[in-house]
Design goal:
689 residues, 19% helix
Length: 689
């Protein structure tokens, strides 16, 4: 076996609350240090050599993904004013092409089966052209002016999520001379298309300012709002009615909204309701003479209602609070409201008329995910929605509000004779250490028996109230067709079971996330869906912290662990308010810098702090050099400490040198990256063909 790289040890002392800790690998945080880059390159070379034997398998998996994917394809057109807009992909091209065609009546244009361009197509933006000559490309702003004549778009060529904002005159196809650097995601147009509002980030990568740009003007852009509280981030958007601009400011537990008539862009934003109150979250949309409001005051799972535009402190309830139903978002249309909700671990949609009467949409499968797609047309009489399950490919439906009928517009093609009946999906419930029932979603080939013989990949996340709902995946078929069971552990810290599910897995309850995952792993074995020597765990970002925590907590439970952009040096990061997003994160994890109890609690579970001299399973860590959310140094330090302090392994680190938090950007590059991860996983099962 090839000798792995050895990271030099340069002791740095960290001292907080009377606790002095020696960190020998803190130097790896410096990306400007040639020693750091040399070490990352050495790790990449080692990982490549250790996985050299998997090249044929990686190529096979990539070919399987490619063969099952309809490479030349287009999305279902969405109405935007006088146009139908859509995206196209072309065989051999990495990125989508954004297009539109003139509307002729209200009926969407017919789609061709081979994904060819629609008659009369106008190419609005070709990401492939923009990406030429760059190893990475991301589009962070894409917004038509209200009249459809100008497109605002933002590009990132590094992966650091700071975009250059540009404007394209769609009447000529030419870009204007306007260019704004350092812009964050999103933005909003004024009603007349003369002004564009956008946000920028500070040194901690926190969106903290909202600016107004006048198209074609040489004047400096105007700062219209600045969020000075480091726990909050801000942004701006246009209401669905296109009548109001909303300037929103949020922390993890509190939100505040200001509004401004879109036809008065140089006016002053007005504070909505009672303003900022700690622990109160709200979101709003506009409908007629009222604002539609979703909030959690005295309603943990949120309540829906409205206020008059003229008095935003006067609230009238439309949909009451329920302990078993979490109201997640609402979109206002001219004649109805579309409410996204979740109940019993599954998503749902409720249609509410303007008087408050409502009905829920019903679906037949035991597991599924459904969500409104919220097209831009405010006067639409039908709702565009997305539906999928672990066996049903992504589908786009239009739901006729008056007739209460679903019309399938398109289901994602899976080539090669895919048959949903050849697979099975189930919902299991694991009993956590405190007796809580934790849902697990599983999918497997129909002929796989629950007799303990099958290998299993168990995925988890469990933070930020983010839910990992059942979803369809073409790359996953390469596992399923080799007899692997795929499972999602819906652990606390996510939002699958409502707000309490999140609260029970954050701050000083964070360890529930980790013990829930171990309980789910045990249940997969006890129910016959796998065995400890055939069970591999996987998670990314905050789910990567989960991977590091369970590696320390129960290393013998797993045959391997795949950690993507893992937040494994969590305590050191959250202790440093100068690092990106740290202060914002204190509402999620706690503030160990000023609170000794939080410090002690985080130190007791932080993966990097708790590596032990015991046998760990093989671990693959994948990261990106330009990641602004989870620094590359976290898995680099963790890997170095595992090699020095632990037994077992091998411990592999793979760093993408031209990518951000989401990994490589082009679809073929992303498929290669996923083929690498899947091949490594299959190798642990002894499945090398």
């Amino acid at each position: 076996m090839q000798t792995p790289p050895t990271a030099n040890r340069h002791d740095t002392v960290r001292e907080h609350h009377g606790d002095a800790v020696v960190d020998p690998y803190a130097w790896l945080e410096n990306a400007e240090n040639s020693e750091t880059i040399d070490y990352l390159k050495a790790e990449n070379a080692y990982t490549e050599s250790m996985t050299e034997h998997l090249k044929p398998l990686r190529e096979s998996i990539f070919d399987e993904i490619k063969r099952r994917t309809q490479e030349t394809d287009l999305s279902v057109p969405v109405r935007k004013g006088d146009w139908w807009t859509y995206n196209r992909t072309m065989e051999g091209k990495q990125y989508p092409i954004h297009c539109r065609v003139k509307a002729n009546g209200d009926t969407p244009p017919e789609l061709s089966e081979n994904g060819s361009p629609l008659p009369g197509e106008e190419i609005v933006l070709d990401q492939n052209v923009l990406a030429e000559g760059h190893d990475f490309f991301s589009l962070g702003v894409y917004d038509f002016s209200v009249d459809g004549n100008v497109l605002a778009y933002g590009v990132d060529f590094a992966g650091n999520e700071r975009f250059t904002l540009r404007f394209r005159d769609l009447r000529t196809g030419d870009d204007l001379s306007d260019s704004v650097l350092g812009v964050f995601y999103g933005g909003a147009w004024s009603a007349d298309g003369e002004y564009f509002f956008y946000s920028t980030v500070d040194d901690a990568w926190r969106p903290h300012q909202v600016w107004r740009h006048r198209l074609g003007s040489s004047e400096d852009d105007v700062l219209v709002f600045e969020e000075t509280d480091e726990r909050f981030w801000c942004g701006v958007e246009l209401s669905r009615s296109e009548k109001y601009l909303f300037c929103e400011s949020h922390s993890k537990i509190t939100s505040e909204v200001r509004f401004l008539a879109a036809d008065d862009p140089t006016g002053e934003f007005v504070l909505f309701g009672h303003g900022r109150r700690t622990g109160i979250e709200l979101s709003i949309d506009h409908q007629g003479d009222r604002f539609i409001v979703l909030h959690n005051e005295d309603a943990p799972n949120f309540v829906l209602g409205y206020t008059p535009v003229t008095d935003t402190t006067a609230f009238t309830e439309l949909v009451p609070h329920r302990d078993d139903t979490r109201l997640e978002s609402v979109a206002a249309f001219d004649g109805y409201l579309a409410v996204s909700l979740r109940r019993n671990g599954l998503t749902g949609i409720r249609i509410v008329d303007n008087a408050g009467a409502g009905h829920d949409l019903a679906f037949d499968e035991v597991l599924y995910s459904v969500s409104p797609m919220f097209g831009p047309e405010y006067h639409a009489t039908s709702l565009r929605l997305s539906y999928q399950s672990m066996v049903s490919p992504d589908s786009v439906y239009d739901y006729d509000i008056a007739g209460r009928e679903l019309l399938l517009r398109k289901q994602k093609a899976v080539l090669g004779g895919y048959d949903p009946a050849a697979y099975q999906q189930h919902r299991l419930w694991a009993t956590a250490s405190d007796g809580t029932q934790v849902p697990i979603s599983i999918v497997a080939r129909a002929d796989v028996a629950a007799d303990g013989s099958a290998p299993c990949l168990l995925y988890g996340y469990g933070s930020y109230e983010t839910s990992i709902d059942p979803y369809f995946s073409i790359p996953r078929l390469s596992l399923l067709d080799r007899g692997v069971v795929y499972a999602i552990a819906h652990v606390r810290g996510g939002g699958e079971m409502g707000r309490h599910w999140y609260e029970d897995g954050k701050l000083l309850n964070k360890k529930n996330t980790f013990t829930d995952f171990v309980s789910c792993a045990d249940h997969m074995v006890e129910s016959g869906w796998s065995a400890p020597d055939k069970l591999v765990a996987r998670g990314g970002s905050a789910g990567g912290l989960l991977m590091g925590a369970v590696a320390n907590l129960a290393p013998s439970r797993f045959a391997g662990i795949c950690a993507q952009v893992p937040f494994v040096d969590s305590l050191n990061t959250i202790l440093d308010p100068t690092k990106p997003l740290t202060v914002i994160e204190w509402d999620e994890w706690g503030d160990p810098l000023h609170d000794a109890d939080v410090y002690a609690y985080m130190k007791s579970y932080a993966p990097y702090e708790n590596v032990a001299d015991v046998a760990y399973p093989p671990i693959l860590s994948v990261t990106s050099l330009n990641d602004t959310r989870v620094g590359f140094h976290e898995p680099a330090k963790w890997t170095a400490r595992l090699r020095h302090d632990a037994q077992g392994g091998p411990f592999l680190l793979k760093t993408e040198m031209e990518a951000g938090h989401g990994g490589r950007s082009g679809r073929y590059d992303a498929w290669h990256e996923e083929a690498f991860n899947l091949a490594w996983t299959l190798d642990l099962y002894g499945l090398r063909e």
